[in-house]
Amino acid sequence: MASSSHPTKGIQDGHRARKRFGQNFLVDHGVIDRILGAVPPGADIVEIGPGLGALTVPLARRGNRVVAIELDRDVIRHLRVKLDAEGVGRQVELVGQDALRLDLDTLCRDQGLAPPLTLVGNLPYNIATALISRFLQQADRIEQMVFMVQREVGNRLAAAPNDSAYGRLSVLTAMHAEVEHLFDVPPESFNPPPKVDSSVIRITPRLEPLVPPDEQARFERLVTAAFAQRRKTLRNNLKPLMSASTIEASGIDPSLRAQALDIPDFLALARRLDPA
Fold it and tell me: Which domains, from first to last, does the chain contain?
């Protein structure tokens, strides 16, 4: 999870939290129970960054099969001992891999999993948006994702038009999925405590993306340009791509800012672009 300026102060089960892996271990049992309540019992779970098993152990105890993706070999070693001591070692498969390179088709084949999958994780803050973007590229393999992220990121992911947090990330996520804010988590729920609040969110991929696959590249190009400078109008931000009259021809006021537009608005503008 989020990095800390004092990683050596966070010691859990004999393991020191490592700043380079963004480790902050969840220790609040009330929060753990609330996360468990958001995950279907009995489902096969792919856990991203199991840490020292705060979620892994109770998931396995209640009957979920867990395939846990963890990069830190020291964490894997500690977690394997803990799982065996808790009597749930057979319920959990530990996969030593970088989640940013995770291919769900390969994982399903290697682990005998049947998509769509449920993904759960206490994500490292420094790569949370990159991870979620990676998984949304494989959205057709996913039933839902229940993730802990930095609260600011959670707000951006779930934001709607005219919300102060609404931006490029909000739009590109909404294209593929619905995002629900479940609850916030304070720093003292972790060891070591991060410097920011956290949020638990549920991401549910859409059966069909709101933008056709063959139009997504120019849609993303348009959205990126529209939010290039948040305080500027569409007329100014989109000037390198189209004229104000072209924006008006799409039925959109060029004096608006990007925060006022929804996905159909952005798509109407993107269709005025030449394919990249």
Answer: 7-205 (3.40.50.150), 213-270 (1.10.8.100)
